[in-house]
Amino acid sequence: MAARIWLAAAAALMLTGCLLSPGKFTADMTVMRSGGFTFAYQGEIHLMGLAQLVAMGAAMDSKGTDFIPNPCYGDPAQIDGAVLKTAYLQDEEAWTEEAIERECTAAEIERQKSEWEDQRAAKKAEDARMIDMFKELMGGIDPGSPDAIDEFIVRIKKQKGWRDIVHKGDGLFVVDYAASGRIDQDYVFPVIEKTRGLPPFIIAAARANGAVRIDAPGFSGSGDGGFLGGGMSGLIPMLQAIGSMENKEEAKLFAGLPKADGTFTIRTDGEILTNNTDDGPVASGAMKTLQWSINTRTKKAPEALIMLDPA
Predict the structure, then answer these.
(1) How many Cβ atoms from other residues are within 10 Å of residue 13's Cβ?
(2) Which H helix or E strand runs over 287?
(3) What is the CA radius of gyration of the chain?
């Protein structure tokens, strides 16, 4: 039951777009007092499409492919007042002596089968609705199509900055990205054309007084940015925890979800006003360096406020 609830939560997160998460990576950003900046990301990015969420649901429902009646309990002579409980409640101390397992009547089996069929039909309709919504958010890419990955790669390679992208299977991409420009306007990574609602790995917000605030909500192993703000980072630990608690087939799917493992480094000759690194800035000549190690134990998403020369 817990896994089904969290799967529904994952599907809800899909409504904001696809689920993106860093795997093993190095990310570097240099921000100069004059306003110039560079950003580079090398390593893994995991795209978890809705098709994979549906696959998780299928794994959790695999035991329910064929209808199997639940046990019935109580006095068979008093069908209307019989205690109908599922097997996992059988050890409750509150059970009475009359609450014993018995053979279900034809009417009870028919009622259970009708409810089972209704649940399966509702799930099938919900899966179809979510797939259609995902296709719309991905700009027409059908997550169930065998050409979906190729279409996604072609789209990304058209954009400036994506120097290389290779699909390793199961939605795992190894990328080489680099961009440069001026920080007098906001900068967000990643941005993929036609795709809406991507959770950002980093956000650089230019302020009117000449400062720039850099946040990296995608680089938080425990989803510090909140369930939605942290994107996949906030969801993955919960799913993995569920998978480890339940000795079921879906645990294999949860255990295989990506884990952030890398470093994020900021270099600047500006004045560092605030930051949340463990050790603070390290000076090297005119430049100062901030560095965060990102893993599943990272509680706080990287953030820094840097004063540049006012425009």
Answers:
(1) 22
(2) strand 287-294
(3) 25
CA distance 232 to 221: 9
Q: According to the model, what pLDDT value does residue 288 have?
A: 97
218 CB-near residues (< 8 Å, 6+ apart): 20, 21, 22, 199, 200, 201, 202, 225, 230, 231, 232, 233, 301
**What's the pLDDT score for residue 195?**
81
- The tokens for 83 are 């205690």
Q: What's the predicted TM-score (pTM) here?
A: 0.71
Strands 211-215 and 36-48: unpaired
Residue 213: the pLDDT is 97
Contact 297, 221 (CB under 8 A): yes
CA quadruple 220, 224, 225, 228: dihedral sign:
positive
Which residue ranges of the chain lie beneath pLDDT 50?
1-3, 6, 14-17, 50, 79-90, 95-97, 223-232, 240, 242-247
HEC string of 80-125 equals HHCCCCCHHHCCCCCCCCCCCEECCCHHHHHHHHHHHHHHHHHHHH
**What pLDDT shows up at residue 17?**
44
Decide the pairing of beta strands 202-206 and 211-215. antiparallel
Query: Residue 123 corresponds to which tokens in the numbers above?
Result: 């799930």
Residue 19, phi-psi category: left (phi > 0), alpha (psi -120 to 50), beta (remainder) = beta
| Helices (H), ranges, the chain | 2-14, 50-61, 106-137, 148-157, 232-245, 250-255
Distance (Å, whole) CA 234 – CA 226: 7
Look at residues 39, 36, 40 and name the one whose alpha carbon lies nearest to residue 270.
36
> Which pLDDT score is estimated for 102?
77
Question: How many residues does the structure list for the chain?
Answer: 311
